[in-house]
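User:
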Amino acid sequence: MPRWDFRPHGTIVDEETFGRVTELETRQAARLQYAVSMLTIHQSPDGSVADQADVSEQLAEVVSPVVGGELEDLRSIVQRIIAEVSYHRSGEQRALVVSIGGSSFPATATSSRELLLQADTLAEEVRQEQGHDSTYRLRERPDTS
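Assistant: Predicted structure:
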């Protein structure tokens, strides 16, 4: 993408860089006392699309402005993502189908590693059970009683 292109778009980074950025963000969140939420999004195995790179860019565009909400906000954020990705098609292909897992620091996770692991695990669980529709699973706040 040219440097002069100012349209909103997602930035895709490698897993190691993403892990480091997540660690820095959770440390800052702990220090400044705010929430960091994480969503893991998998394209379903039967959601056929022509260009995988294009799908990744489209998902990054949708997710970029929403990550960072409180645990209570994740459900509506995920529902907006599912509504948005349902419009993405490639040629005559069917709508993009996704499995999403979500977690939140410090509500459900105590570290960046746990934050990533919870979101990844939930997204994988949903992908294993998934039918033909996009769906999600969010980590629940632990019971403190």
